[in-house]
Sequence to fold (191 residues):
Amino acid sequence: MVNFLIFGPPGSGKGTQSVRLAEKFNLKHLSTGDMLRAEIAAGTHLGKKMSSIMSKGELVPDEVVIEMIAAKIDSTKGCAGFLFDGFPRTVAQTIALEKMLNVRNMKIDSLLVLDVDHDELVKRLVIRAELSGRPDDKDPDVIENRIDVYKEKTEPIIDYCRKKGIYQPVDGMGGIDDIFTRLSDKMKKLM
Ligand code: B4P
Fold:
C-alpha cells in the first residue's frame, strides 16, 4: 500500500485533483471535507454540531475527523493505497494518522503540497461559491479566515513532514490538466 497526503490551502485544488488521481492510481480517496458535508446533508447529530464550525471557516475538533478516518481505513479493501485529501489539518491529526497507519503496517509515503498564490485561491473559491452554494465559499471574510487558519494550524505539518523526508512541493498554478500531470509524475515514482 502506498499512502499519499494531498495538501494545500483552501482552493489549492486538493479535491479537484484527488478525484482524478485516485482513479488513475487505484487509490481510495478519503476527503474529510466531503465526509463532514455528507453528515450535514444527512442531518445527523454530528452534522448539526459541525455545521456552524465549518460555516465560520474554523476546523472541527481533531477527534471527530480522526475517528471518521479510522473507520474508513478499516472498511476499505482492494486498493493500491490511500489518498488523504484535507486530512490531516493539524500536527496532532498527522501524528494520529501515523499511529493509525503504523499499527496496520503502513506509513505516510508522501506529502504532496500544492503551492498557489493567495489571490488565485480567493478567485477560485469565489467562482465555486456560485455553483456549490457552500456557506464557507460565499463570504469573503470566511474565505480569508480559512486561509489564516491554514497558515496557523495546518502549514506547520509541512515542517513536520520535511524533517521526515516526505515533503514534495508541486506548482499548483495553471490549468487543471497541467497540475494533474505534475502530480502524476511525482506519484508514479513512488508507486
Ligand atoms: P475541504 O472540503 O477540505 O475544502 P477546501 O479546503 O475548500 O478545499 P477543496 O479541496 O474543497 O477545494 P479545491 O481546492 O479542490 O474543507 C472544508 C471545511 O471542512 C474546512 O474549512 C473545515 O471546517 C472542515 N474540515 C475538513 N477536513 C478537516 C479536518 N481534517 N480537520 C478539521 N476540519 C476539517 O478547489 C476549489 C475550487 O477551485 C473548485 O471550484 C475547483 O474547481 C477550482 N479549481 C481547482 N483547481 C483549479 C485550477 N487549476 N484552476 C482553476 N480552478 C481550479
Remarks:
- Residues 5 and 84 are 5 Å apart (CA to CA).
